[in-house]
Amino acid sequence: MRPVKAIQFRYRASSELDSLFEDFRLMCNDAIRIALKEKPKSRFKLIESAYFRLKEYSLHSHYILSACEIAYSVYKNKNRKTGPYVKQAFLKLDNQSYILNHLLLRIPIRPREFIYLTLQGSDYHLQFIDDPTLKRGSITLGRNNLSIAFSKEIAEIKPLGNVGIDMNERNATTSNTLGTTNIFDTSGVMEVKERYRAIRAKIGRQTRPDNRISQKLYAKYGRRGKNRTVQQLHTVSKKIVQQAKEKKLRIVMENLEGIRKLYRKGNGQGSSYRGRMNSWTFREVQRQIEYKAAWEGIPVTYVNPRGTSRNCPECGSRVVILAERKLYCSECDKTWDRDILASLNIMKMMMVCVVPQAQPSTDEAVKGNGENNNYPNPPSRRMKVVIGQEPTTRQNQKN
Ligand SMILES: [Zn+2]
User: Fold this and answer.
1) Which of 102, 83, 26 shows the shortest CA–CA distance to 59?
2) Where would I find the H helices in the chain?
3) Burial 334-364 (b: 16+ CB within 10 A, else e)
4) Is 117 in a helix, a strand, or coil?
5) What is the CA radius of gyration of the chain?
6) Helix (H, G, I), strand (E, B), or coil: what is residue 323?
7) All residues at 6 or more sequence positions from 53 whose CB lies less than 8 Å from its CB, including other chains
8) In the chain, what are the domain boundaries?
9) CA of 333 to the centre of ligand 1 (A)
10) pLDDT, position 357
11) What is the distance in A from the centroid of ligand 1 to the CA of 165?
């Protein structure tokens, strides 16, 4: 595994840098125009056809290669809604072209001509800069901050168990195979979101005559609201990954892609409810957990989210929904918290294929496998996948 982590640094930009930003932006747009005309099949084809045009800017040749790389990815981007165009001021350079000595960064302008920038770094930043085992990748400069990609070689840990994570609006609940359940409160995030939603509504009401002002304010408060929520989610994702690292656990989460499809116009839900559901911060928490786990060599698996809060994790029978997010299993005569039950079920979905691998022929393996006890031999890798999918498809068929 070679995980990559981008670390952001603040720095003070100079006027010299401003003209470099502008030149680079024009170079990217030139390269995009050439790409649209020539329709290159690869990045290297684009470099071939754009090289002499971009050389006229008389910048260091690293910039030509980097501009072509950006232009090619913009040109190839299938999701873009408007015409391909680079609007923002930024610079991207590969690891060959800059030199970073502690917090002093040297970037080239023209051959034998450089700009020196001093980065601002906390202890957190320094632990990356001063670690000789980390490999430095490309660097991206914006107007106020720059990010450096660090990568390292790490072996994936052999998990001793699983931790299932159920994400919902108010908390993230984790249950692991060691029997520990934790609830990480994220209701603060919800409050922030609520507050900023009210602010946005107010902006909409008060700036109706001038669209430009409202756009500006929306952007400002949207950014501010996002920064505040993301910050809170980082503390949660950090704790979860920390725990998985200490106990050597595989992280299992619900695959929530497509969850937004459930909350679309015309599905019979009110607009405010829809707005709340579509702004769920799930994906953000998952994204954070995923890259933090990758950095530590912790495996992450996604399972099908269907029916994770429908059956009892102990006996597998259907549960009855009570008030206040409680569920009741009549077989075990047990009342469950909805979030804990879901996290246990998510954890178990993955056990199905991990347990047989570790102990192929014990009773436990068969138990962990649900009702499926018809495999005589230790399962092969190929079979592992098949078994892992089975419980979810069975549940789907029931409905
Ligand atoms: Zn039960």
Assistant:
1) 26
2) 15-38, 43-55, 61-76, 123-129, 187-206, 211-247, 271-278, 282-296, 338-358, 363-368, 381-398
3) eebebbbbbbbbbbbbbbbbbbbeeeeeeee
4) strand
5) 26
6) coil
7) 30, 31, 34
8) 4-151, 161-303, 320-389
9) 7
10) 42
11) 20
Ligand 1 centre to CA of 318 (Å) is 8
Asked whether the predicted pLDDT for residue 258 surpasses 80, the reply is: no
Query: Residue 370 pLDDT > 80, yes or no?
Result: no
Q: How many CA atoms lie within 13 A of 249 on its CB side?
A: 25
pTM attached to this predicted model? 0.72
- Mean pLDDT of the region 352-381: 42
Q: How far is the CA of 357 from the centre of ligand 1 (A)?
A: 26
Ligand 1 centre and the CA of 214: distance in Å?
A: 54
Assign 351 a pLDDT band (cuts: 50, 70, 90). Answer: low
Q: Which two tokens stand for residue 217?
A: 């304010």
| CA neighbours closer than 13 Å in the CB half-sphere of residue 203 | 18
DSSP 342-383: HHHHHHHHHHHHHHHHHSTTSHHHHHHTTT-----SPP-HHH
Residue with tokens 């499809």: 261
> Vertex 304, ends 299 and 307: CA angle to 5°?
130
Reading the block at residue 11, the tokens are: 């720095």
Place of tokens 């720059």: 146
User: 79 alpha carbon to ligand 1 midpoint, in Å?
Assistant: 46
Strand runs (DSSP E) across 53-159, as ranges? Answer: 91-93, 99-101, 104-110, 113-120, 135-141, 145-151
Structure tokens that stand for 271 in this block = 């607009």
The token pair that represents 326 in the structure block? 């409680």
Q: How many CB atoms lie within 10 A of CB 23?
A: 17
pLDDT tens sequence across 148-197: 999 999 888 898 899 999 888 788 899 988 888 999 988 888 888 888 88
